């Protein structure tokens, strides 16, 4: 995920829509996506969210109203969003943004299933920070 697939689509424009809380990305292959900030935050590729290995993912809740307060370029291959809840450690490669945009419906379905399985409401506040030795 940390790079750009050879021959993969690259963003032609990226627009932050603060009021509707979506990131609009238009790619070189003609695809265009409106990715909700909440989806980006819930599926952040950071270790804080994904953990350090399979099965260590941290279910994110209470992110429906999260805002994007900054979007910094990372080389020529990614952006690093800064969210209103203080999360800023995820680096979103062009490939990952394309994945989020193109798979939104399935990702939302998976997220809702994980919430149900955990018995947690989407808008519940996050539990205490995980204690897994990370300094995130």
How would you portray this structure in words?
The protein is α+β, with helices and mostly antiparallel strands and about 140 residues long. The chain starts with 10 loop residues before the first strand and ends in an 18-residue tail after the last helix. The C terminus is likely disordered.
Concise structural overview:
With 136 residues, the chain is an alpha+beta fold. It is 25% helix and 24% strand.
Ends distance: 19 Å
The assigned structural class equals: alpha+beta
Q: How many helices?
A: 4
Roughly how many Å is the radius of gyration?
15 Å
Helix amount: 25-40%
Morphology call: globular
Number of domains: 1
CATH topology: NE0471 N-terminal domain-like
**Strand order in space, largest sheet:** 1-2-3
CATH architecture: 2-Layer Sandwich
Poorly predicted sequence stretches spanning 5 or more consecutive residues: 130-136
Query: What summary fits the major beta sheet?
Result: 3 strands, antiparallel
Query: What string, H for helix and E for strand, traces the elements in order?
Result: EEEHHEEEHH
Give the DSSP E fraction (strand runs of 2 or more residues).
Answer: 15-25%
Mean pLDDT comes to: 90
What is the CATH C-level name?
A: Alpha Beta
Number of strands: 6
